[in-house]
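Late entry, written up from scratch paper. The run itself happened at the end of the previous shift, but nothing got recorded in the book at the time, so transcribing now.
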Amino acid sequence: MRMLKTLLSTHDVAYATSTQKLFSNISVTIKEKDRIGLIGPNGIGKSTFLKILEGVLEPDSGTVTKHGRIGYVPQIAEEFRQQMTIDELLQSASCPYDQFCNTYKSIFSSTVPNKDSAIDSMSGGERTKLWIAMVASQLPQALLLDEPTNHLDQKSITELKRWIHTFKGAVVFVSHNRPFLSDVAHIIWELNAQTINVFGSGYTDYLHQKEHLAAAQARRYEVTKKELLALDKGVQMRETKAARAAKVQRKNRTESSRSKSAENYFKNRSEKGVGNIKKKHDARRNELEESLQDLQMGSPKTINVPLDSRSRKGGLILETEALPITIDSRVLINDVSLRIEYGDRLAILGENGSGKTVLVKKLMEEVTQPTPNISKVGSDITVAYIDQQYEMVAQNLTVFENLEQKMNDIDQELIYKQIGRFQFPEHYIHKKAGELSGGETARLAFAIATITPLDLLILDEPTNNLDIETTDIIIDALNDFKGSLVVISHDTYLLGELKVQQAYIIEGRSLVPNKLSYNH
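Output as recorded:
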């Protein structure tokens, strides 16, 4: 049997930003046919590590050795490239359009975009497919994908999975999409605050191993706590016993029973014995306290994210009758007739480019400025919209300033509380939003949108960029939210967990009811 070729390896790689140590001592190997899922919480450095593997970033120390061609698809495409046409983008990458078209057709069944199309006019899913096909057409031997399923519709995700299974090289991908991880990854790299833990099996086996490790860690924590208490109790008993003995000795002391020198000898020996015991106790206590701290750091953090709704008992939020959805005079959806009442849960489905984002933006406009004779709106409706690109987040402002500008009446205590709810460390308060990771930016967008009570929350691919733990917390918060919810998502896990009452799909320029199907 032929030995699989090593395509890329690292030795003792370390990296830190100006404010944070991300990781150190990472030594990993990527071989032909590897399918590696890189996971970890937001802000831990997953995208940074992929950039180091590709060569976009240099590590602070350690080495990266390449033995083949590396292709890299970033999570968020560079802004200057989004201002290009497809032809200009391909030329900048020295990728012939015919070659790109052939690769695109081999991966996705959707129509190949015209080379004169402007990238910034494309949907998020269309851009993702563009970048994947462009990089894949350059025939890499190892492919690095940062959140490849973000924005993709379910059909395109299925097609991408099928293509990856046939790809002869290695694939390393960052993803928080559980079904995609389960179906694609053979190896899991778990990035934490120190290094990468390698699990040489698929995602389902990784979850089982993590459960066993968490249970063992909980047991070690309890055993360590008990040992610490017993240690303190033992020393306290010894000190009490020594003090009593000294008291008795002083009481019974007589000149005739013991010489002064003998008395001093026994006194010094007793004090020395207690002192040695205390030194050993202090050393062991420090070891146990460090162990407890390490065990606590490895435990999942509990976050409370309440989404406040207005005090309503029901009633109309928005009703439309034959509302046309257009873009640049082009009709995307004919005659949308929809009624949303307080507390409703709606999902909007459809393929990439079908008009889902344009639809929810139009619904948002209708709530604030209803079209006469077409739309009806309830009284005094408050609405928030979190878009795919998190445009509500001002990149040049700090985390605190972003929340501050959202509020009419500045309430610093509420702002600090909201920052804490969304698990931002204290030193992030004055950090520029442009320095945040994709997942941290998503959390900030949620924090901004939900800092004041809402009647209607509109979410466009809300779990893109969010780590698995935060996704579950957001799901719990959304299920507790009493207001109305309209969500666009291709995340079948999310749709399965949310209490969605009705789904609609855009087909043939019509919005029609659809039955949800879930994939956990």
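The first helix runs from residue 46 to 54.
(Scratch paper discarded after transcription.)
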